[in-house]
Design brief:
heterotrimer; A alpha+beta (275); B alpha/beta (643); C mainly alpha (412); A: 275 residues; alpha+beta; Alpha-Beta Plaits; 7 helices; C: 412 residues; mainly alpha; Formate dehydrogenase/DMSO reductase fold; 14 helices; 74% helix; binds iron/sulfur cluster
């Protein structure tokens, strides 16, 4: 049992260094394994694929021609949006308020959760999500024969017709907390954790941690010049303009920061103006 | 007491029913009933619970032998982890362990070869049958018709080599790899000291995409970033390595060697640099005459000034290194190319490239290399040690015919395109079940699978000639593992490669019948094909490679327009060697003009139901000219026509 | 019974028979594919993780918007006492009822877990105040309550059946229900304002992270759209029925009045839609650093917008000028333009909306319903037509007609 003896201090966030990512795909395999992703004989129906992490190939051939071209890979998972959560305001991700069955919520640690057994499968949240981060079980999840042996007990197998998504592997945090609790440590903030994708990355490109802790690596990286958030255009404005815009409209404001010093890649993370 | 009449009775009864119904509804029971119906109609699988623990294992997914920890729930392995990150090949170990099509008992063929019909037999019977066949061949003096193809130079590959050589055969081959082809071209494979270099010039080597020792390369990559090492990638497709390079030099397909000739020419003539390799004088003379910078510029598509600048930068660096071996997991290149690139290292006296050998691995066999052996050799008995040459060699079809006539033994955990021609399939362990000097088995061995090393050792013990040749146990085998020794002296081998150097110009010239060039590239995780049997690999394939069952090739936008292709249109590709089935076009400018880039690793025929019938195997139509020194086909760039 | 059905077929003309066969065929196919979808899931549709909704949501949007004619007509009749609309009201209520009924059917099919549909009521997503946090929660409740009202409104039509009305009790009930109808109309109008707004527009307008939809005024525009298109629709349905039955089921002046109302509302809609496009170009797209016209592309290009405006203008032109409206031909063209303008707008909300890429390196996507989606959609429409036919034949759907027939009979 978890005893909350102090208020939540954590706000989990991620920084993904795209310049360090070689596109090896370890994060993707690890995520699939950790989260019991269904196994299909032919998973080439990409638009209906059930996977939390998509290793997106990004090239700059929108803006350049051979040989001035570049290729990068961008591991994309739920960006754990906050909306315009300022000050004491509770985070308001695009996908949470829309759910008619309260099957998805945002925790005080900032993680957008999803209760698979509560979801009615209306896919409104999927429509609301600008990052295509939510996936729907179009078919019944299958696990052929002995593959079932590799299923983890931490993540329940979803039913057909429900939405599932990356939860920053929050079950791993729970696991770590449970271990701490067993040792008599009841503080909910006592332990940190690393999601499966981050711990699998051979080049350490994925950094995970507490954004509320100014000393954490991730919060330093998030503030660095190299940080850029995917399609979150409001970031490009001056602070005054930002304030003005955010007073009129919410922005997704993800808690996943991509890091790159490549100009082309930063450009590719924005829609081209007036193209 | 008043008598209850009919009317009252009905009233009471009705009331009870109504009340009951109301109570039932308000109790929430119908909702619970619904919930139950929901669950019942779903029939979700619930993974068996158990106690969590971590155990250690040593990966054999590549020759690195990384130590990993395995998360266990009860006696099930559910995750492979390590604090230093785990590379995907190793993560796939779990999917191999629990693969539903895993072969877990020795199998004997029970139908036509290639049909995939097998029946389980006992180890005793299988080993007895195989060893008596082998004894007979040795006794008849036909020992040299016993052949083996190893997947790589791992310990069991070394044991296999020892075993077959001691039986009296010289026919031990390795699937063409960076080490095997460079070793044959240069007299030792190149040991790059990437930690010491400040300038890397790669001729199509996809340094961070699985090339060479993938684990090591990932580490080096981080060092390069830290130490500001300059990376220049010369390639005809800009893959991720091109993306991380400080400079991407786009060249026409298949002109890596010519670019190296040009740079060498410039360094020799303008910078008066020399190489200590044997035959340098003759070689340089030919290059100077045959490949003046103007011609090189025309063939490669790189401007003359740019070539000069590149060579100047290279020569000016403190410890530059030029890297040969186009490709990532699948590597190809002619010895002319490998030698030319290595020549650059000797010209600038690079301290970061030395030739070495493995004491237990000899790449010299009866034939120069595997492809030549398939093409010209013959065998009556074949050991396929984890290898899949039918799929990976451009001579796959020829090999099929030869395998049909021979007695074939495959050591393979999963069926593959070559094992399907085996008379016996012997199931090896996955690394999670294997014991090493440093770790106990993480999980119990599946049914009757055995450590590949033990399989070879027990076979050797049953063959008269090899009885005492091998270590007695796999624990002993670790002690006799090969060590790195110095390689031979670098030679240009001029007489042997002269013709090939001259042929480049013709090969790359105009070709009216086959106007465009087909080059391969590798998608993440799929590599050159081993990954495709694993469903989580299938889950990670980019839609620009395989989408809704459609297999895509990449083509430059302008070129597409010129030849009448638009995004998603279907394409048929044929070369002088044959036709490929239908593919689809993805237009992208990461590809050089007049080039079609095709993903490797697809189009398996018998690689489990996950790997089968997905995409096309371009090796079927790729050029099959066998290189005189490496004995491997130089399949990299192929002239094709498209329609 | 069999004899009865046989008679129906024998009595009908050849064209009618073919129509009946086709409609019944569609309904049967609907049944077959419905089983497939309900038991094996939505994998058989062309919807996907990017194109999350498809034909059925288009159906919902269209049906609810056009069914919105019911509350508008009811409002004018019962609250404003525009008695000329009375000959239309039964047909209107029936159509409204069916539109909502099949909206539920479509919604049910669209749920990945239809058996959990009641979660929407059991765990509603209410915000802090009275207003729900989720537009779909709003839709769930509002649509259900309004549907009940439509049922109540429909009961008199059934009760007034020649046979039933002879029963004194029934007659009394029917009479009192009629008197009460204005409360229903008022309640219906009130509710309709909410769900028309939410399902038609608010549901999309609140998606702040999807620049193609985000527009706070979308909620209100959808209400106007429903009133404008719905009234045209409520004219055309009995008109077509009359043409087929070759009888004057509703007097021309009723049509004229309703189309006039429709035309007037279309002026409002036109202005609103222009404002909508203007704010899209000048305000909302730039707020997300997008260019409004860059977001139109692929198959669902800017032609959809042009087509929609052409239809709106046609409706405006023909319905608002007396000289045209009074010619039956132009009235029909005008009303049809109005209906199609609304349908096109719903198509483009969905098709164009989903087709817009979310990532700068992706291109426009497309959607083509599978056979399952087509047949479930068409089967539902066929069902609606059949129900309408049954009512037109055996129930007092058109009091005007009954009145006349009674008149005719007395002459004999
Ligand atoms: S699909 Fe599930 S989680 Fe998403 S909005 Fe609908 S009910 Fe909520
Ligand atoms: S990325 Fe999508 S699913 Fe994740 S929080 Fe944002 S809107 Fe929700
Ligand atoms: S945080 Fe966990 S669930 Fe999310 S992408 Fe990474 S591994 Fe997958």
């Amino acid at each position: 049992m978890i005893v909350k003896d102090s208020a939540m201090k954590r706000k989990w966030g991620m920084a993904i260094d795209l310049d360090k990512c070689t596109g090896c795909g370890a994060c993707s395999i690890a995520c699939n394994q950790e989260n019991n992703m269904p196994i299909f004989e032919d998973d080439s129906d990409v638009p209906k694929r059930v996977a939390f992490l998509e290793l997106m190939k990004v090239t700059n051939d929108r803006d350049a021609k051979f040989p001035d071209v570049k290729t990068a890979f961008l591991p994309k998972m739920c960006q754990q949006c906050e909306g315009n959560a300022v000050g004491k305001h509770k985070a308001d991700p695009p996908c949470v308020s829309v759910c008619p069955a309260v099957a998805t919520d945002v925790g005080d640690d900032g993680v957008v959760s999803q209760i698979w057994s509560r979801c009615i499968g209306c896919r409104y949240c999927q429509t609301a999500c600008p990052y295509e981060a939510r996936v729907f079980n179009w078919w019944k999840p299958e696990y052929e024969g002995s593959f079932k042996n590799s299923l983890s007990t931490d993540v329940s197998v979803a039913s057909r017709g429900t939405i599932v998504k990356c939860t920053f592997c929050s079950h791993i945090w729970k696991r770590e907390r449970d271990k701490a609790t067993a040792n008599g440590i009841l503080d909910i903030n006592a332990v940190l954790y690393t999601p499966a994708c981050a711990s699998a990355c051979p080049t350490g490109a994925i950094i995970f941690g507490d954004l509320n802790d100014p000393e954490s690596e991730v919060s330093k990286l998030a503030k660095s010049d190299r940080a850029v958030r995917l399609v979150n255009t409001v970031d490009d404005e001056t602070p005054e303009k930002q304030k003005a815009l955010m007073s009129k409209k919410q922005y997704a404001n993800p808690k996943v920061y991509y890091l790159t010093s490549q100009k082309w890649l930063r450009d590719m993370m924005r829609f081209k103006k007036n193209s | 007491m008043k008598k209850i009449d009919r009317k009252d009775f009905l009233k009471i009864g009705g009331g009870a029913v109504v009340g009951g119904l109301a109570g039932y509804t308000l109790s929430g029971a119908p909702f619970l009933g619904f919930q139950w119906l929901v669950e019942w109609s779903q029939d979700q699988y619930v993974p068996a619970p158990g106690i969590e623990k971590y155990v250690q294992a040593v990966s054999d997914s590549c020759t690195n032998g990384c130590k990993v920890s395995v998360r266990m729930i009860g006696n099930r392995a559910v995750k492979i982890e390590s604090k230093d990150g785990v590379c995907p090949a190793c993560l796939n170990g779990l999917q191999l362990l629990y693969h539903p099509e895993r072969i877990s008992t020795p199998m004997k063929i029970s139908g036509k070869k290639g049909s995939g019909n097998y029946q389980p037999v006992s180890w005793d019977q299988a080993l007895k049958d195989i060893s008596s066949k082998m004894n007979a061949l040795v006794n008849e003096g036909k020992a040299n018709t016993i052949a083996a193809v190893n997947k790589n130079e791992s310990l069991n590959g070394q044991l296999m080599e020892k075993f077959v050589r001691n039986a009296g055969s010289n026919n031990v081959y390795y699937e063409p790899s960076l080490n095997s082809i460079t070793s044959n071209a240069l007299g030792g494979y190149v040991k790059y000291d990437f930690a010491k270099t400040d300038f890397i010039l790669s001729f199509g080597a996809k340094l961070v995409e699985g090339w060479g020792n993938a684990v090591e390369m990932q580490k080096q990559f981080l060092n390069w970033k830290k130490n500001n090492v300059k990376i220049v990638q010369a390639d005809s497709v800009c893959t991720r390595t091109g993306g991380i390079a400080n400079e991407f030099v786009g060249i026409n397909p298949g002109t890596e060697a010519v670019l190296a000739f040009g740079m060498a020419n410039y360094l020799i003539t303008a910078k008066r640099m020399t190489s200590s390799g044997d035959d340098f004088a003759k070689w340089s003379q030919l290059i100077i005459n045959k490949y003046p910078l103007g011609k090189v510029a025309k063939l490669t598509g790189v401007a003359e000034d740019k070539i000069k600048k590149l060579a100047d930068d290279f020569a000016a660096a403190k410890n530059p290194v030029a890297v040969a071996g186009k490709g990532a997991h699948g590597v190809s290149g002619s010895s002319a190319e490998i030698i030319a690139v290595y020549c650059l290292n000797t010209l600038v006296k690079s301290g970061a490239a030395t030739l070495v050998k493995n004491s237990a691995v000899s790449y010299t066999a009866e034939f120069a290399g595997l492809d030549k052996f398939i093409k010209e050799g013959s065998f009556s008995m074949m050991f396929l040690n984890g290898s899949d040459p039918v799929y990976k060699s451009v001579y796959g079809e020829e090999l099929k015919k030869k395998l049909e006539k021979a007695f074939v033994v495959a050591i393979a955990p999963l069926m593959n395109d070559s094992a399907v021609y085996a008379d016996y399939i012997l199931p090896p362990l996955s690394f999670l079940e294997a014991e090493t000097p440093e770790s106990k088995p993480a999980v119990k061995a599946l049914k009757e699978s055995k450590d590949a090393k033990e399989i070879i050792i027990s076979l050797a013990a049953m063959v008269d000639k090899t009885k005492n040749a091998l270590p007695k146990t796999s624990a002993d085998a670790y002690k006799s593992a090969g060590r790195e020794t110095a390689g031979g002296k670098f030679s240009f081998n001029f007489e042997k490669i002269k013709a090939d150097i001259e042929a480049y110009e013709k090969k790359l010239g105009q070709n009216a019948e086959y106007p465009v060039t087909l080059v391969p590239y590798e998608a993440p995780l799929v590599g050159d094909g081993d990954g495709l049997a694993f469903p989580y690999v299938l889950k990670s394939i980019d839609p620009s490679v395989l989408n809704l069952g459609k297999f895509y090739v990449m083509m430059n936008k302008e070129t597409g327009k010129k030849h009448g292709f638009s995004e998603g249109s279907s394409i048929k590709i044929s070369s002088a060697r044959g036709k490929l089935g239908k593919a689809y076009v993805h237009l992208s400018d990461v590809v050089a003009p007049e080039t079609v880039a095709i993903p490797l690793g697809f189009g398996h025929e018998s690689y489990t139901k996950y790997g089968n019938e997905k995409g096309l195997n371009p090796k079927k139509i790729m050029t099959a000219d066998v290189d005189p020194l490496t004995g491997a086909a130089d399949w990299w760039s192929t002239r094709v026509k498209i329609s | 019974m069999i004899q009865f059905i046989k008679n129906i077929f024998q009595e009908s003309s050849k064209n009618m028979r073919i129509t009946l066969y086709v409609l019944i065929g569609l309904v049967v196919l609907f049944g077959i594919f419905a089983i497939q979808i309900l038991f094996w899931g939505l994998g058989y549709t062309d919807m996907n993780n990017n194109f999350t909704w498809g034909a059925w949501i288009i159906g919902d949007l269209g049906l609810v918007a056009l069914g919105g004619g019911a509350f508008t007509t009811g409002y004018f009749l019962y609250i404003f006492r525009v008695d000329k609309l009375r000959p239309l009201i039964s047909s209107t209520v029936l159509i409204g009822f069916m539109c909502y009924l099949f909206t539920f059917v479509f919604l049910l099919f669209d749920l990945g877990q239809p058996l959990r549909c009641w979660f929407g009521f059991a765990y509603p997503n209410w915000g802090k105040g009275v207003y729900p946090a989720s537009m779909l929660t709003e839709v769930f409740f509002c649509l259900s309550i309004y549907f009940c009202i439509l049922v109540v409104e429909l009961i008199p039509v059934v009760l007034e059946h020649k046979v039933l009305i002879k029963n004194k009790v029934v007659a009394a009930i029917a009479h009192y229900m009629h008197l009460l109808m204005w409360t229903m109309a008022a309640g219906g109008t009130f509710l309709s304002f909410f769900h028309q707004g939410s399902l038609g527009g608010g549901m999309w307008g609140v998606l702040y992270a999807r620049p193609v939809w985000f527009a706070p005024h979308f909620f209100f525009m959808a209400i106007v759209a429903a009133m404008a298109g719905g009234t045209s629709f409520m004219t055309m349905m009995p008109y077509i029925a009359g043409k087929i039955m070759k009888k004057e089921v509703v007097p021309m002046e009723s049509y004229q009045l309703l189309t006039k109302i429709s035309g007037m509302i279309f002026i409002g809609y036109f202005v609103f839609r222009v404002y909508d496009v203007y704010t899209g170009i000048a305000k909302f797209a730039p707020m997300a650093q997008r260019n409004y016209f860059d977001m139109w592309g692929g198959y669902y290009g800017v032609w959809m917008l042009v087509l929609e405006f052409a239809l709106i203008i046609s409706a405006l032109f023909f319905l608002n000028q007396k000289k045209y409206r009074e010619q039956e031909k132009f009235m029909v063209i005008g009303a049809c333009s109005g209906i199609f303008a609304i349908v096109t707008s719903k198509l483009s909300v969905l098709l164009h909306g989903f087709s817009v890429p979310n990532f700068p390196w992706k291109s426009f996507t497309a959607y083509m319903p599978t056979i399952q989606e087509w047949l479930i959609t068409l089967g539902c429409f066929a069902c609606m037509i059949l129900i309408y036919m049954v009512f037109a034949k055996w129930f007092p759907l058109f009091p005007h007609l009954e009145h006349h027939e009674a008149h005719d009979e007395s002459h004999h």
